[in-house]
Design goal:
By secondary structure, the chain is an alpha/beta fold. The chain is built from 7 helices and 5 strands; from the N terminus they run βααβααβααβαβ.
Length: about 130
Amino acid sequence: MPCYLESSAFLKLVVEEQESRALLAYLDEVGEDAVTSSWLLVTEAHRAASRLGLDRHDDVDRLLARISLVRVLDEICTEAGKLLSGHPMRTLDAIHVATALYVDADIMLSYDSRQLDAARIAGLETASPR
């Protein structure tokens, strides 16, 4: 069951939050080999850690090493630009949704309501383990 881990979900693995344990349990159930994300996550995760004032870059790198990362390819960017015309979607959200579609993910894990809405409209199953 390939699942796509979006940045709002990944950060719950870096910073203990209310949903962190439920997300960890979900990921344990799916298995580490089934988790994928965009290389975009590398930048987003490190920037978020810095923005939160956390010196956790080693932890971020260890967690990233456990995820299958997909390069931000030309075709993904092209699809992201055309995705859901008429639906307000942020650029990075569009890249995440397009990447999840590109890898044929069964489900997208996210805690961002706009991201979840866009993913559902694009035809992806979504989850926010709580």
